[in-house]
Design goal:
The protein is about 50% helix and about 15% strand. Strands 1-2 form a two-stranded parallel sheet.
């Protein structure tokens, strides 16, 4: 369950400001998609990937996304 009141953008802002691409992997896709969209809206590169860390296929997809993500 997502943390109430937790702003997922905070840890990613510094990375975005340094020009990094951000891959947000979370089982709570509504929150991660909103955080990624906010980063993109502010000029960054970000994608959201649904991930249940108990599912090896999900984890592999996150790694592949990080490798191929532009930036």
């Amino acid at each position: 369950q997502p943390l109430e009141g937790h702003d997922m953008r905070e840890p990613h802002d510094e990375l975005k400001d340094q020009g990094a691409s951000v891959v947000i992997a979370d089982i709570a896709t509504d929150a991660s998609e909103a955080a990624a969209a906010d980063i993109v809206d502010r000029g960054g590169v970000a994608v959201s990937v649904a991930c249940d860390v108990g599912d090896r296929g999900d984890v592999d997809r996150v790694v592949e996304t990080a490798i191929t993500c532009p930036g």
